Amino acid sequence: MVKKQQGNTPGTAQTAHRPTLKTIASMTNLGVTTVSRALKDAPDISQRTKQRVRLVADEVGYTPNRAGVGLRTGKTNVITLALSLEEEIMGLTSHLVRGIAETLSGTPYHLTITPHSRDKSPLESIRYIVETRSADGIILSRTHPDDPRVNYLHKRRVPFATHGRTNGSVVHPFHDFDNERYMMEAIDRLVLKGRSNIAVVAPPEELTYHRHTMQGYNQAIKQHALKPFRKLPFNIENSLDEIEVESHRLFSSAHRPDGIISLSGGSTIAICCGLEKAGLKVGHEVDIVSKQNVNILPRFRKDIEIVNEDMTLAGKELAQQVIDSLNGIHPGALQSVVYSDSDT
To answer: In the predicted model, what is the mean pLDDT of residues 134-148?
Structure first.
């Protein structure tokens, strides 16, 4: 068994006895280059050698000197997730991050998160990342149809992937949920239950998936010869208090929906609170179809129709797309749109 090197005595430099590639090379009787390539999972190094090198690296507590790597290669070995502080937190962010982290595990890359607030342009944080060279690749969320971040990163040849599609001319990696199909199948479910006044709690209009959502809604409404319900005075990014108040007002009115489609689990809970304050009950006067990222809605109200959006899968896909982009794979081959429901 290889013993870990002891820590420094007081007064000595903290990096004096830090294990290096040379340390591992000496202990394994391998060349420094071989050790380096083994740790990077190079395909021309045998699995047996990789396991041997990793075992010694773990036992001596070796970690790459990222600053030194950056100086030698111009790389940071960092992939950053650009995340809005207003992201819907209920399962979305944590599961997305988990998926990214699982994919990066065992690779040279580390995950950082770069937050930005709504009162500032999201392009500012992207410019900072690029100008300071603080990441090799970037994952973008909350995409807009003509997203300036996409055009900016494309012009500067920075590898990136987006959670959601865009409408611009730039071909780029993306992973997206099929919200158009979701809306069409949700309306099919509600019509089977005898519902005809069907409203949608949509995303904000500036986001790309609002367009996909409404395309599916309008197409299904037309197919079933229904009248579109009026636009609601709230969307899934209003606060839960606001959604509850507006839902109470909506379901207390004479012209109320008998079916609701929601794109957010948190919004759905607030809607249920509002309609119940109006004296109605889910599964009786009103039926609801809702997406969820965490399996919580069946525990809240068993009569809600559920469609699951796998955010862990989204994180895995996005991380792999950025890695593949860094390895030179064409962006057109790095695009995915998925759909899953409670039966899958």
So the answer is: 95
